[in-house]
What we know:
The protein is an alpha/beta fold. The chain has helices at residues 11-21, 49-55, 105-114, 161-167, 231-235, 243-253, 259-262, 291-294, 304-320, 328-348, 353-366, 370-376, 378-381; strands at 2-7, 26-31, 44-47, 73-78, 84-89, 101-104, 121-122, 127-131, 137-141, 146-149, 151-154, 174-186, 198-202, 206-212, 218-226, 266-275, 287-289. The protein has one domain (2-173, 276-381): FAD/NAD(P)-binding domain (3-Layer(bba) Sandwich). 32% of the residues lie in helices and 26% in strands. The strands form 4 sheets. A 7-stranded mixed beta sheet has the order 5-4-13-14-15-12-16, with helices on both faces. Strands 7-2-1-11-17 form a 5-stranded parallel beta sheet. Helix 1 runs parallel beside helix 9 and helix 2 packs across helix 9. Pfam families: FAD_binding_3 (PF01494).
Amino acid sequence: MKNITIIGAGISGLYIANLLSQNSNYQVTIYEKNGSVDLEKGYGIQLSVNSIKLLNQINFQKIRIEDKFHPNKLDFYSLKNNKKICDLDISMFNSTDTKYTTLQRSTLINFLKDGLHKNIIHYNKKVIKINEEVKNKEVSFEDGSSVKCDYLIISDGTFSKTKSLIANKEIKPKYFNSIALRATIDQDALKSINLENISLFLGSNLHSVLYPVNSKGQFNFISILRKKLRTEELSDYSLFENKDFTASIISKISKQVAPETINNLRSIKCFPIFVSSKMHEPKNKNTFIIGDAFFALPPTFAQGASQSIEVAHELYKNLENENTQFNSERVKRVKMIDMKSKLNYFAFHLSNPLTIWIRNLIMQKLVKNEKFINSYLGKIYKD
Length: 383
């Protein structure tokens, strides 16, 4: 039996633990630095069909229909005049059991957590040292305990400390020159949009997204504002919990987003967006990195959670086949999605009236071009 240690109880860590737990050849333990799994309610995630297919392998289709939503289209709007630009049919990639899905992040985390035995997750376990020289690698924790394992899976997020430990150098993500403001809002406060779809509002150096997270009228709101920050501001993470700083971001966003939306936002949180510069490959063949620790993408293709699931699934298949490396196609795929996410970000944040007019005209043509849609979206959704 192989002992597998997973660092981090996020989406990718929990998902691969579910897969590995189905095989009696593996003994799986998750070590989480926090005192509990993050079950913050309200905030949403989007899961495209490429990840739903993989989640269905652990019975995701059994989640109650009222706890998730299946939008059919992505509606594009202009924030300047609040007029609809065009819409994109995202249901064209759906099948009977595999549909584009939006839901609360806590719903997915709870589902993944409930699929595991209660004693699999160990909390308050902050990694301080990793010894990979011994036959069975040893992981030491801040509380003085340690564990030996055959395989080590690092899944502790964008700011992974464990990744830096195995690299013997500090690996930092890159600030994406953007601030995200996320919140929840009820559908009764939303006007002039199709509540059955995802709504994407394009502004000047700003875009906002609204989508349902269940069938109970609850919506997720996120706004991405282009904003440079000084090094000292980025090093002081408490800044993003400062009410005055959050109020200043809300003030900037409210210059473009409708007042009736801003005034009805609840559970508002503000945070900087960080992305990866490159993928780090562990030197030890039995150490693996997945999730946002593997590569943190810009949020403008809504592929963060889906790619965390994809990479975790590929590692699981590799372990089953005794393959110890991600193939070159995985690296190429992540780079492709990263490139498309950055292209989306550029297109969503245009400020010159002429380039905006040209962009809107191009978008109206492209969303109806089946060949383009199959190339731009299909190469991701059909994985």
